[in-house]
Amino acid sequence: MYGKILVVDDELPIAEILKFNLEKEGYQVVCAFDGGAAVELAFSEDPDLILLDIMLPVKDGMDVCREVRAKKDTPIIMLTAKDSEVDKVLGLELGADDYVTKPFGTRELLARVKAHLRRQSKAAQSQQEAAEPAGLRLHRLTIDTDMYLVYKDGQTLDLTHREYELVYYMAKNSGRVMTREHLLQAVWGFEYLGDVRTVDVTIRRLREKIEDDPSRPEYIMTRRGLGYTMRNPKAGGA
Q1: 170 burial class (0-12, 13-18, 19+ CB within 10 angstroms)?
Q2: Disulfide engineering: 159 pairs with which of 55, 83, 114, 163, CB 3.0-4.6 Å?
Q3: Taking the mean position of all CA atoms in its chain, how far away is CA 232?
Q4: What is the rounded average pLDDT of the residues 5-33?
Q5: Between vectors from CA 23 to CA 29 and to CA 21, what angle results, nearest 5°?
Q6: C-alpha distances in angstroms, 25 versus 1, 7, 68, 113, 131?
Q7: Residues 34-90: pLDDT tens digits?
Q8: What is the pTM of this model?
Q9: How far is CA 216 from the centre of its chain?
């Protein structure tokens, strides 16, 4: 798991040591040596994590933390020679995620960096999953897999359970040409002994419900001599 890290420390030897060890682990590193540059780089470089010293020229680490946290949720690990409880509490109250006192062990710092990046990655993934509704979307069609419903332009389509299963299966495999025999087995089941024309009939009913003009379908396309394929009109292609 790699990422970009902003190292902020006015002591050049410390900044260089941090940069060396982080790059050795595969991270991309950007350095700032005063608080003003740190704020600028925090927004222009959009790092995945910030290692932030407290004692800085121009703006101290507390001010940097306050300004960054007002607009970004980037993980911030404070670095300082101070070891008082007041400093730790103040840094955390301003939005810092962790606090490491100098001198610190490289292995401990790297472990904390990895832990915070891992936590940030999981949080971003969870937010993305929560923002995305369960189901599939093909241009104007939305298939809700929780409610077993299909919508077109936000309006519910009156589909039978078998029609729903067929359009869902084809949407999952959009762009793939499927024979009638394959669709019969996949949607109706291996034990179903019906004629493959059952697929044609159900496809015709589906087109009447989901297509603007069933005679000129946009979604369910016939591949002559092969079978059917589900197309995403927005994506183009036949």
Answers
A1: buried
A2: 163
A3: 22
A4: 96
A5: 110
A6: 9, 15, 25, 11, 32
A7: 999 999 999 999 999 999 999 999 999 999 999 999 999 899 999 887 666 667 777
A8: 0.55
A9: 36
Instruction: Reply yes or no: is the peptide bond before residue 214 cis, omega within 30 of 0.
Output: no
The single residue listed with the structure tokens 């790297």 is: 110
Degrees (nearest 5) of the Cα angle 42, 47, 51? 75
pLDDT digits (tens, 9 = 90+) for 182-238: 998 888 875 556 678 889 989 999 999 999 999 999 999 999 989 999 998 765 544
Assess contact for 80 and 87: CB atoms under 8 A: yes
Residue-level pLDDT at 123: 61
The answer to whether the CB of 77 falls within 8 A of the CB of 8 is no
Strands 98-101 and 76-80: parallel
Query: What's the mean pLDDT in 149-169?
Result: 91
